[in-house]
Amino acid sequence: MVLLTLTWGCIPELTPHCMDMTNSSSTYVGIIIGAIIGAIISWWIFNRQKKTSDKQDYTLNRIEQIENYNEKLLEKIKQLEEHNEKLLEKIMDLNKKIDSLLEGQ
Questions:
Q1: What percent of the chain clears pLDDT 70, i.e. is strictly above it?
Q2: What distance in Å separates the CA atoms of residue 76 and residue 18, rounded to the nearest whole number?
Q3: What residues have CB less than 8 Å from 29, skipping those under 6 apart?
């Protein structure tokens, strides 16, 4: 303890019966408080970045799901359009046949 006191100085708040070394005492207290505040700020920044990252990941996944749904929906619409085209062609052929039958009478 004597070596520690000689090397690092004496903090009156922690060590009884020592000479008052206010500058070293305030330096140690300042370093400790600075480390605590720095740790709290670092944790807060990390926590905020993690929440933001989680929200971004959720949003990107949701966008991907919506894009997949839209692709499937567009494919179904395309198939429906193709079916409607074929149906229209058949109706037109039937109309031509009816017209030719009516003209033949």
A1: 75
A2: 86
A3: 11, 13
Residue range 53-60: average pLDDT? 97
- The reported pLDDT for the residue numbered 30 is 84
Instruction: Describe the chain by its helix, strand, coil percentages, rounded to 5.
Output: 85, 0, 15
pTM of the model: 0.55
3-state secondary structure of 54: helix
DSSP structure class, residue 2: H
Q: How far from 46 is each of 4, 52, 65, CA to CA, in Å? A: 36, 10, 28
Nearest to 49 by CA among 39, 61, 41: 41
Give the type of residue at 63. Answer: I
